[in-house]
Design a protein that fits this description.
Elements: H1 7-72, E1 88-92, E2 95-103, E3 108-109, H2 132-142, H3 150-161, H4 174-179, H5 205-211, E4 215-216, E5 226-227, H6 236-241, H7 249-257, H8 267-270, H9 274-277, E6 289-290, E7 295-304, E8 307-318, E9 322-331
Parallel strand pairs: 3-4, 5-6
Antiparallel strand pairs: 1-2, 2-7, 7-8, 8-9
Helix pairs in contact: 2-3
Organism: Henriciella marina
Domain T2SS protein K second SAM-like: 226-291
Pfam families: T2SSK, T2SSK_1st
């Protein structure tokens, strides 16, 4: 005949069972957490991958936007058009693509600053434009940038892109960048983007912030025209430069601010503005003004499944219909 278990033995068995159940529960919770983490990670990776593909696709979306703007403006753009005045949003499944355009040639092209070998001459000129260095120095003055070192700013930028190693007036070539401990060299090539100036002597963050709306790096080294219908108030020094400074920056800003809806129909009409009529024809550089746009810069923000990608794309209008991509850069 079996003897009944003692209460102490029953208690031990119960505790053992409870410990086993607790251990299994802990394992189950750990496995569940691991599965959930892996699932979340997989979803995040998948969303990031899709966002990357959408960022690539945004190039075609931007091209379609520009073509639509040119069609709506009958071949001309103005700053009050959708896409310029406010961003354009394209809904997609799971998010949206937001695009904002700006005129890519309303700026001083720093690639004009290739200087001839006669570096000791203060009046050395750009090989592709007779007044490249002078124009840049004048623009810096009008924008009140680097008042104490205009020559250094001009020639350091020129030295960055020229092919020789002879520094210009207060400029900088490889010897400077090596001796200052920076340990890099001048490329001796045109800039791809004006942000390269951050690596150039004298171009401090404050200088770069002030120059941001005024300079660019375009593939050609020729002088570009300014579209008077897409200039912004921040770009008033550029318009002042087109009148040799006779049109003050403040007056240029007022003209841009008071621009008629849809812009001026042509440069001739613009030149009849009272603020301009009083300027001597000898000081007008009308060849720098236009109502046409050749380069368009688009900033695209892709928001998809709580993931954001930002892309900047430069387009060029080649002929009446063709919109070509000049470059594309992923930001952030």
């Amino acid at each position: 005949m079996k003897q009944p278990r003692k209460k102490s033995e029953q208690g031990v068995a119960l505790v053992t069972v409870l410990m086993i159940v607790a251990a299994m529960s802990a394992v189950a919770v750990t496995l569940s957490a691991a599965v959930m983490s892996a699932t979340t990670r997989a979803r995040t990776v998948d969303a990031a991958s899709q966002a990357d593909w959408l960022a690539l696709a945004s190039e075609e979306v931007g091209r379609a936007l520009i073509e639509e703007m040119f069609t709506a403006g009958e071949g001309r753009l103005s700053v009050d058009m959708p896409g310029f005045a406010e961003p354009v949003r394209f809904p997609i499944e799971g998010g949206e693509i937001t695009m904002r355009a700006s005129d890519g040639a309303n700026c001083f092209n720093v690639n004009r600053l290739s200087i001839t070998p006669a570096r000791s001459d203060e009046n050395a000129v750009g090989v592709s434009g007779p007044n490249a260095a002078e124009d840049f120095e004048s623009l810096l003055k009008l924008a009140e940038i680097g008042d104490q070192n205009l020559t250094g700013l001009v020639y350091s930028a020129a030295d960055w892109i020229d092919v020789d190693q002879s520094p210009g007036l207060n400029g900088a070539e490889n010897a400077y960048y090596a001796s200052s401990g920076l340990q890099y060299r001048t490329p001796g090539l045109p800039m791809i983007d004006a942000s390269e100036l951050r690596a150039v002597r004298y171009y401090t963050p404050d200088v770069m912030d002030a120059l941001e709306p005024l300079v660019c790096a375009l593939p050609e080294s020729e002088e570009q025209t300014l579209n008077i219908n897409t200039l912004t108030v921040a770009q008033a020094p550029l318009l002042s430069l087109a009148f040799s400074g006779a049109l003050s920056v403040e007056a240029a800003g007022d003209l841009i601010f008071q621009r008629p809806v849809g812009g001026w129909p042509d440069v001739e009409t613009f030149l009849t503005e009272p603020a301009i009529r009083q300027i001597s024809p000898d000081l007008r550089r009308s060849e720098l003004l236009s109502v046409q746009t050749e380069y368009v810069r688009v900033q695209a923000a892709i928001d998809f499944a709580n993931t954001r990608r930002t892309v900047e794309i430069m387009y060029r209008r080649n002929g009446a219909q063709r919109i070509e991509t000049v470059w594309r850069e992923r930001k952030g």
